[in-house]
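seq:
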Amino acid sequence: MTRTRPVPLALSFGRSLLMAVLASALVSGAADRKALWRLDSPLLAKSASTALRRGTDSGKVRLRVTLQPTSRWPTVTVPFSPAMDWSGATYVCFRVRLEMSMSQTVGMNVLSDGKAYQRVRRMPAGRWLEYRIPIAELQAGKDKAGGWCGDALDMAKVTGVAFQGHDPTVPVRLLVDEVALVTVPPAKATGFAAVGAADGVLLRWDAAPGIAAHDIFRQAAGKQSRRICRFPGARFVDTSAKLGAVYGYQVRPVTHHGQAGELSARLEAGRDAKAPVALPPLDRFGGRADIDLGARGFFRVDRLSSRWVLVTPDGHPFYSIGVCVAGLGDSYTRVSRREELFKDILKEKDEPRFRSAWTPPYGHAAYGLDATGLAVSRYVRHQILTHGENWRQVWRDSAIKRFQDWHLNTLGAWCDGGLNGAKKLPRTSFAASWGTCPKIPGVNVPDVFDPAFEQAVRGSAERVAAERDDPWLIGYFTANEMGWYGDWQNGKNLVCLIHMAEELLAAKQAWLAFLRERHGEIAALNRAWGTEFKDFAQVAADRKKLPKGVGVREDSAAFLARFAERYFKLTTAAIKQHAPHRLVLGARHSQSSSAEVLAANGRYCDVLSATLYGRSPRGELGKALAFTDKPWIVGEFHFQAKDAGLTIRNIDGTLPDQAGRGDAYQDYVCDGLGLGNLVGMHWFEYIDEPATGRFNHGKDGGEAHNIGWVDVNDRPYADFVERAALINANIPLIFDQPLPRPHVLP
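struct:
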């Protein structure tokens, strides 16, 4: 990036707050999009396992690809002759549509001299979607999260593209509108402008086309330059700048997440006696007060340009950034059968002042104990020793004050009910649970066809009536991490588990009725399944795994859709009956769910939700957007650092130290802010898990991970918190940022 001479400007500090700055303008030309080949060209090849033909659709020339089930990975290749040079490009885009009645997994490959890079995506039926692959990923042979996707390719010698089927049992039919190469010119520093600020260092630049985010670097006198944040917008406020300090700033445009761009020119801060407020005003709930979407007295969802947004009761766009499990229950650990680990405090168990530390709020059963067993919280003990008799209220006040200082605006799932005192934060809750009704054997899913399910949901949802007029309640989740995928470890999906269950199971009866309704005669079912059942009674008595085949898959998908339809219809209706204006936030899927479940979820719930661990929410939510155009909330995410000395969870989110954990938080949040269907992200959890393990899972007592904002002695992790608070403070600025056109997926 070229450097330009800064324009001298006299600045001074406003009042006694933070500081004012210079800001850079980053501009570039428009992105260039070039189709790689005409679909009516003679470059198309045919192979034994695939069928290719050209045709028209809606007046356009399209490539029709049929991936025949004649091999395990049926593939069709479109060669380039001569080879192409993609080394100066930014993305390659595949615009495709699945011409089938059910979703399929398809690989889109790029080829280079005998090597291949593959982007695999689950595609919905009947929708045009565009999938982007950054050229940098093709060169590295890894996706943005570091996952292996094939070979690292030579971009100077691209020899073709290919489409690959991942279901060897059914023909996969694709329409391909275009494969195009997009080149985004590098951003350049073209000038400087003075922008004063009373509450921080305000940086502003003109966003270049195709830029996903910006890495913002800061250098204080005598210090090394370091990245202070990654942010997707074109305006940013450094709220961590110290009063009176002079800094140099650099802005690196990022074309895609996981990659850094070139440096901008250096910026120097000065003084400004008339500094305006840099961050926009917020309403009492934390919504962007200078954007009016209409007050209705309760939280709702709406569109702001191409972005889904939550809207506060006062009518302003709101992004939910919060913490779940801001409570004390997870800080308790089992003592019984491990008394030697607690001999330093064991004598305190009968002292009245420590009673709370030895009384687990979840009950003894959560720790594998009966009522005579022992469990303790060293965290609660520390609160009692530090704050005395009034420790609980002091803890609540301290937690809310910290959340406000860290620009966290939401109490997520399972938070202490007493946290919202005089100083309130928006919150979420649970409703429409299924109590003790029967479950599908082997998985955490209720039998939605059992009469007890409807009764349990109706009864548990009645309590929402008492909260229906609370303006601080965003909405209700209906469940947590249901096993929609079934027993994936043993290759048994949910419908397979129902098929293998006893006939008395209501869901099994519904499955059998569905098969009779769909096929009529047993001979028709046998033809579809390739089986030899004598009658439906023999189907009912079958306890084996479902056979493989196209017919079985189509029946299973259709029944799963009916199962999910009933779940979301009943739970949503139960909540809306008692609180018609309250948002229904979905079932907090575990990572992801099938297309049939997502589609049903989207038809009934106002918002969908999932626990999305890993370095980025983009992959899962990008795939989800293909199946339902509804807003989403990330119900859980977190990262851990090795320097805390706790056990390491085997996830893609382990960093060497707290600074790295803070950087990972920024990258995740920044990536999420760039998704038009994501309206909130909730961290799991507020306090580190105890070193001796929460609950009673495993021989050592359960999880013991560094996933807190504070440690077990209530000390905030400063390097992590500083980085997290900085991007949190800037989140309201994203409502100024235009998003890519809908249905462009990673």
